[in-house]
Amino acid sequence: MQTVYQQRRQDLMALMGEGTAVFASAPMAVMHNDVEYNFRQDSDFYYLTGFDEPGAIAVLAPHHEEHRFVLFVRPKDKDKEIWSGRRLGVEAAKAALGADEVFSIEELDAKLPDYLKGGDRLFYHFGHDAALNGKILRHWQRLLASYVKRGTGPTAIADARLLLQSLRRVKRPEEIDLIRQAVAVSVKAHNYAREIAQPGRYEYEIQAEMEHLFKLAGGGTAYPSIVASGDNACILHYVENNRQMQAGDLLLIDAGGCIDYYNADITRTFPVAGKFSAEQRILYELVLEAQLNAIAEVQPGKPFNAFHDAAVRTITAGLVELGLLVGDVDTLIEEKKHKAFFMHGTGHFLGLDVHDTGVLRNADKTWKPFAAGNVVTVEPGIYVMPDYEPVEGQPAVDDRWRGIGIRIEDDVLVTDAGPEVLTAGVPKSVAAMEA
Ligand code: GLY
Ligand code: MN
Ligand code: MN
Q1: Ligand 1 site residues, Cβ closer than 6 angstroms
Q2: Phi/psi at 367 (nearest 5 deg)?
């Protein structure tokens, strides 16, 4: 497995020129009243090292003669390990993580300048750790102050995250394999959720059963699960999940598992009692049509906005046909009138982060194209707020439409042969949603 991380570091160093990069692991788990809450590794750090501990720094120094990959890690400490878990330690880290040199994190201030000095730039992401940000900045300023005497050293700081995104946006085979594993358990959970959801049960019961399956697979929950019945489906980030489901409700479930930090992100919407109302069915079919049209645009070379545009066009035209919007479709799209019913984007990259890294536009405002190896969610929706009020020039909507919220979300791998719907194991036809 180390060769995988080594390859990633090499590919990154090829982009760095004579710069030095510093990546920090996520800070320690949060303590509340003596209870330690879960630690979650920083995705960039994990991508480059596969190391799952807090309190570590990775330095990439392609210009250095011997030490191109240097790690600073927490030293072994018997007492602390009794309380907070095992540490790899300085001795073992070299072989286990393939580092050219490993130091205790306590030596960071003493050793880091040596590595920064040889580079012409510093790549670092100013994240949430204010103490570390300050430390890195001070090292850089000190080296800058002595630059005139040396004539070498970093004269600028560039964002390390932006540097790395160009690699992370194209998933490697081992990453796609992990996403497939996360998808597999999520597919199972969604299919099980449809089996057990029925009037009288509580949203949290469905959530618990799904998250139980994620955990049983050796994984976890990718993001706070949304199990939203009835009107709750119109709240995009509804997470209370405490309502008792009623006959006549739709149930919108946006939930995914994660395996080894790689995520799945799936939404399905179905009638709790097994039959769509006429209005629910019409809007469901429209969202499904929009989603299929959007998926068809997820092709290598197509600009990133094409799939959203396809979804917006389908939904806007459909809403006009239903009389929920009035006007010329092109004008309505231009004026973004669809946002009254479809107020979010159609998707995002997916990977180590649920909303994965990846710059979407070029400096000239054109959209970057999809490339084989991208993984993106496709998740259009229609939400008719219970208290919907039309903007000027648009019609009021009939009560029968109100409180309907529908989203359909799949995870799609861009391949040279076209879009591969990784989450196809959860059906989404009207017939399957009523089964
Ligand atoms: N579940 C988060 C999202 O769909 O973006
Ligand atoms: Mn989602
Ligand atoms: Mn999503």
Answers
A1: 223, 254, 265, 354, 379, 409
A2: -90, 140
Burial class (CB in 10 A: 0-12, 13-18, 19+), 393: exposed
Active site residue 407: yes
CB half-sphere exposure, 184, CA atoms < 13 A: 11
Q: What stretch of H or E contains 196?
A: helix 173-196
DSSP string, 77-118: -HHHHHHH----HHHHHHHHHT-SEEEEGGGHHHHHHHHHHT
State how far the Cα of 391 lies from the Cα of 357, in Å rounded to an integer.
35
Catalytic residue selected from 203, 231, 379, 411: 379
pLDDT of residue 128: 87
Q: Kindly state the helix (H) or strand (E) to which residue 306 belongs, with its residue range.
A: helix 306-322
Nearest-atom index, ligand 1, CA of 256: 1
Pairing relationship of beta strands 405-407 and 381-383 according to DSSP bridges: antiparallel
Largest CA distance in the chain: 78
DSSP letter, residue 362: -
Q: Could you tell me the domains of the chain?
A: 2-167 (3.40.350.10), 170-433 (3.90.230.10)
Q: Which ligand is nearest to the CA of 237?
A: 1
Tokens of 171: 């998933």
Question: Percent of the chain, pLDDT > 90?
Answer: 96
Distance of CA 259 to the CA centre of its chain: 13
Pick from 29-43, 139-153, 243-257, 375-389: least confident: 29-43
Q: CB neighbours of 302 closer than 8 A, spacing ≥ 6?
A: 369, 370
pTM for this model (two decimals): 0.96
Spatial contact of 20 and 28, defined as CB atoms under 8 Å apart: no
Q: Which residues line ion ligand 3, judged by CB < 5 Å?
A: 265, 377
Query: How far, rounded to the nearest angstrom, does the alpha carbon of residue 367 sit from its chain's CA centroid?
Result: 20
Sign for the CA dihedral angle at 216, 237, 178, 423 comes to positive
- Do the Cβ atoms of 148 and 44 come closer than 8 Å? no
Residue that has been written with the tokens 């739709």 in this structure? 250
Q: Are 59 and 119 in contact (CB under 8 A)?
A: no
Starting at the earlier edge strand, list the strands of the sheet with 375-378: 375-378, 410-415, 418-421
The helix (run of H) or strand (run of E) holding residue 131 is helix 130-145
How far is Cα of residue 31 from the mean position of the Cα atoms in its chain?
25
Closest residue by Cα to residue 93 from 65, 60, 58:
58
Query: What is residue 244's DSSP assignment?
Result: B
- Residue 312 CA to residue 193 CA, distance in Å, equals 29
